[in-house]
Every structure is written in C-alpha cells, then in structure tokens.
C-alpha cells in the first residue's frame, strides 16, 4: 500500500505485509504494528471507514481508554454498542501515525 504524505512530498510504503490469507470468499491482509512499545498483529481493512481494536488488546498495550457517548455499529456479521475509544500513536514499517480506535468486544482475534 502506498501513501502520499503531503507534508514531506514523497511516497512511503506504509506496511510490509506479513501474511496474506486467501479463502473462498475473501483475502485477509495482516501485518505487525507497534502500539506503545508492544508488537501486535493487525488486520488491514482498506475499505473500513473506522478502526476497531479488541478491548483485551487495548488493555494489554496500555492504551488510555476514554468513555464516549454510546454509538451503535453494524458490521458484516452483527451489531454492537461502542462506549469506549482510544487515540493512540501507532508505528508500522518505520512510519508513525495517530489513530482513533473504537474499543469493541471481539472474541476471535487473528
């Protein structure tokens, strides 16, 4: 995935894809990212409007979690109420960025 950074006027390769899985219905792209000094695997969803993180991972990576007004989110498989989020600095492939992650209860992690 290429990203054009207007601040530095250059193209940067955002992530080295660790693993690409192909199933009958979908392609799953995963890469390693660093959150607060802890390496975790992340699922890259290029079509998503927002980013989510499992509550357990948010706690293990020492994220500062804040309460928010309840928002209902519908995914491909279900609907869930979101009441927390974290705004974090994340690093992948030497690139640092700030992200807003909504905390969800996901019981199956990749």
From TrEMBL:
GO molecular function: aspartic-type endopeptidase activity
UniProt record, GO biological process: proteolysis
Residue ranges the record marks as coiled coil: none
Gene3D superfamilies the record matches: Acid Proteases
Pfam annotation, one family: gag-asp_proteas
InterPro entries: Aspartic_peptidase_AS (IPR001969), Peptidase_aspartic_dom_sf (IPR021109)
Keywords annotated in UniProt: Aspartyl protease, Hydrolase, Protease
PROSITE patterns: ASP_PROTEASE (PS00141)
Protein name: Peptidase A2 domain-containing protein
């Amino acid at each position: 995935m290429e990203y054009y950074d207007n601040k530095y006027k250059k193209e940067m390769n955002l992530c080295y894809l660790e693993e690409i899985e192909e199933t009958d219905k979908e392609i799953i792209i995963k890469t390693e990212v660093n959150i607060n000094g802890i390496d975790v695997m992340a699922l890259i969803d290029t079509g998503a409007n927002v980013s989510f993180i499992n509550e357990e991972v948010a706690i293990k990576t020492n994220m500062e979690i804040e309460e928010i007004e309840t928002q209902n989110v519908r995914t491909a498989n279900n609907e869930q109420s979101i009441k927390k989020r974290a705004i974090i600095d994340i690093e992948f492939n030497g690139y640092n960025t700030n992200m807003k992650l909504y905390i969800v209860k996901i019981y199956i992690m990749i």
